[in-house]
Write a structure and sequence with these properties.
six-stranded antiparallel barrel, Rossmann fold, Topoisomerase I, domain 3, 21 helices, binds zinc ion, alpha+beta, Topoisomerase I, domain 2, six-stranded mixed sheet
């Protein structure tokens, strides 16, 4: 067989893109071996492009058994040896190994960042048998043909070992924390109650949950204080305009009442009109965090969802690599060519063409840099397939942000009209845009509205129309949502751009938090209580950030992985010692917390019969069937019960039925869309639904 160059990519989609870009006809041959795809590429010399499947290797414990800690010995091993359900990884590695045998040259073309570099490194080291020191590295930020061609013909001559070391350190440190503390908690609970439940916390998870608990505490302990304010409008040529009273709040009701009394129905005189123009500079390019924040604010997408969508757009060569913390757009990305590409599409044609008229394009940039990639930008390629609604939105947002950064400053004019009513001052405020500048490009996503005022002159009089006292209460601090939590993590410097969204998802899936406006569950509270008492280091932001900074320094060669690892272990040792000493107390606290949370999960709502009990999902001892019963049954006080479907899962929704107001459940069954169940036999909605279902099944039958 002819010798070839083996190119390793991070995932199958990327392999296909890269193969297409490098094949002289753009048509590589796809081969599938035991469900592992790879691509044969023809050009001056033959290439084989084989994908990884994300991480194929992972940190694994050296030693047997799971029922003890501390454990500090680990090695990197294929995932199928360390994890359940990773069997397919074995064949995957086998296929890569086989393709490596006849290769004479090796190129790593995984994503150029910590994770990607690590994936390529272990595949080259283990599956390809020690090729990590001879392999070259393709470095690129987009999967466009032009950039891939360049990255292939001018590769880096060796792997980026600083990135690899940083990646190793992160995975190893996270493993050490994760495995030891999770084991300590799980074992404590098990030894106390005899029951097994996985309790986990991670190096970043702990401090993140801690913010939420702190916020939850201040919300719960918040005592609202009453205050009063004035609400008023003036009449100008028959239209009502809202005005602000000079004093925003009153601590005493009397104060507000006095204003109402003196000014009600009176005529005011325009004392002063002040106009002020302010320049508003264009926005800065998106890094991943800013993109996630904007998409949450505009479309309500969670950070995780946005990063998944962005990843797909990247794989289709529509945008540059999204996992970046850069706010820079260097000229080398080719502004003109990108805009030319965008101008071929109907919806961006006009604006892109307008920018192309400008002689020298200069983007506004932010301060943050990323050694591996520029900020997120559109490649200028157009979609090859119709995009889904959400993909379309995120792509359009990225395109418009990109165009906006080249725009001129916008000029806003604000106007403040001071109206004097019997010695009291009211302010009428207007806002308008004198020059759109960059806003033209970003228009659909600009959230400030103009407030136009009619022409007014100093000395004129206006009539106060509405004048009311408003009774208010001070509000507790707002709850975090996934987006503001991600921002907070960024601010305090814990986690990485690639992992923050996942950390938040994990907190949800562990049931430590719930709801979009995040509420901490009792279990979440209890976990933090235990950690706070017995190993506060795990939830300390300072310690976490310090470690984070050290790991960053490995990337710039100013710190060594070995040192960071040694330090992490030294810190962990006393924490684990403490956990061991407190084992009985921790076990009791956690077992009770788990028990409570399991009961809580089964509570459906109040009992409509006895009004004092709670309806709960119960299991019959005899038949093992599940049903809804009242908690007062155990006191022989209430016999209320309702049947439940026996297949699938049922979960209390804590939302009243729209038909009857009873509590509802969410039922999920395999192969069916989840539905909301009202268990009230006499619910008016039921009759409706029965009829609808009958109709549907009739229709189905007749269409068959
Ligand atoms: Zn009852
Ligand atoms: Zn109902």
């Amino acid at each position: 067989m002819e010798k070839y160059t083996l190119i390793i990519t991070e995932k199958p989609d990327a392999a296909q893109r890269i193969a297409q870009a490098l094949d002289h006809k753009g048509k590589p041959k796809k081969v599938e071996e035991k469900n592992v795809p790879y691509f044969l590429v023809k050009r001056d010399k033959p290439l084989v492009v084989v994908p990884a499947l994300g991480h194929l290797y992972t940190v694994a414990h050296i030693g047997k058994g799971r029922n003890y800690y501390p454990v500090f010995n680990f090695k990197w091993a294929p995932r199928y040896l360390a994890e359940k359900g990773a069997k397919h990884i074995r064949t995957w590695i086998e296929v890569v190994s086989k393709m490596a045998k006849n290769a004479e040259e090796f190129i790593d073309a995984c994503d150029y960042d910590v994770e990607g570099s690590l994936i390529g490194y272990y595949l080259l080291k283990y599956a390809c048998e020690n090729k990590e020191n001879v392999a070259k590295r393709m470095k690129f930020s987009t999967l466009t043909r032009g950039e891939l061609e360049k990255a292939y013909s001018e590769p880096l001559l060796k792997l980026d070992f600083a990135l690899i070391e940083a990646g190793r350190a992160r995975h190893e440190v996270d493993w050490l924390y994760g495995v030891n503390i999770s084991r300590a908690l799980t074992l404590a609970a098990k030894r106390w109650s005899g029951k097994y439940a996985t309790l986990s916390t991670g190096r970043v998870q702990g401090p993140t949950l801690n913010f939420l608990v702190a916020r939850e505490r201040s919300i719960r302990s918040f005592v609202p204080v009453p205050y009063w304010s004035i609400r008023a409008t003036v009449d100008i040529e028959g239209a009502a305009y809202e005005v602000d009273y000079e004093k925003k709040t009153f601590e005493k009701r009397m104060g507000a009442d006095a204003v109402v009394k003196t000014c009600k129905g009176k005529i005011g005189k325009i004392e002063k009109i002040e106009k002020k123009s302010t320049q508003q500079r264009p926005p800065i390019p998106f890094d991943l965090g800013a993109l996630q924040t904007e998409a949450y604010g505009l479309f309500g997408y969670t950070p995780k969802r946005t990063s998944n969508i962005a990843q797909r757009l990247y794989l289709e060569a529509l945008i540059s690599y999204p996992r970046t913390s850069s706010q820079k757009l260097p000229p080398v990305i080719g502004y003109q060519a990108i805009l030319k590409g965008l101008s071929k599409e109907r919806s961006h044609k006009r604006l892109a063409s307008e920018l192309l008229q400008i002689g020298e394009l200069k983007p506004r940039e932010g301060a943050k840099e990323d050694p591996a990639h520029p900020a997120v930008y559109p490649t200028g390629n157009l979609p090859e397939r119709p995009l889904h609604e959400s993909e379309r939105r995120v792509w359009d947002l990225i395109v418009r942000r990109f165009m906006a950064v080249f725009g001129e400053p916008a000029i806003k004019q604000s106007m403040k009209v001071t109206i004097n009513v019997n010695g009291h001052r009211f302010y009428l405020r207007g806002r308008r845009i004198l020059k759109k500048g960059w806003m033209k490009f970003y228009k659909p996503y600009i959230r400030t509205e103009e407030v136009m005022l009619p022409p007014l002159k100093e000395g004129e009089t206006v009539q106060l129309k509405e004048l009311l006292r408003e009774d208010k209460f001070t509000k507790p601090p707002p709850r975090y949502n996934p987006s503001s939590l991600l921002k907070k993590m960024e601010e305090v410097g814990i986690g990485t751009k690639a992992t923050r969204a996942d950390t938040i998802e994990t907190l949800y899936s562990r049931k430590y938090i719930a709801e979009e406006r995040i509420v901490v569950t009792d279990l979440g509270f209890d976990i933090i209580d235990v950690l706070h008492k017995y190993c506060s280091g795990v939830i300390s932001v300072e310690l976490t950030r310090e470690l984070e900074e050290k790991m960053e320094q490995i990337q710039t060669n100013s710190e060594k992985r070995e040192n960071v690892l040694f330090e992490a272990v030294e810190r962990l040792k006393p924490m684990l010692e403490q956990l061991k000493q407190g084992e009985a107390a921790i076990g009791e606290a956690l077992s009770n917390a788990i028990k409570r949370s399991r009961i809580q999960e089964r509570i459906v709502g109040g009992c409509p019969t006895c009004k004092t009990g709670k309806l709960m999902i119960l299991y019959s001892r005899k038949t093992r069937k599940r049903f809804i019963g009242c908690t007062n049954y155990f006191k022989n006080a209430c016999q209320t019960s309702f049947p439940l479907p026996q297949r699938g899962t049922v979960k209390p929704l804590h939302k009243p039925c729209k038909g009857c107001g009873w509590s509802t459940l969410l039922v999920k069954m395999k192969g069916r869309r989840p539905w909301i169940l009202c268990f009230n036999e006499n619910c008016p909605k039921k009759e409706e639904r029965r009829k609808r279902l009958e109709m549907q099944s009739l229709q189905k039958r007749s269409s068959k």
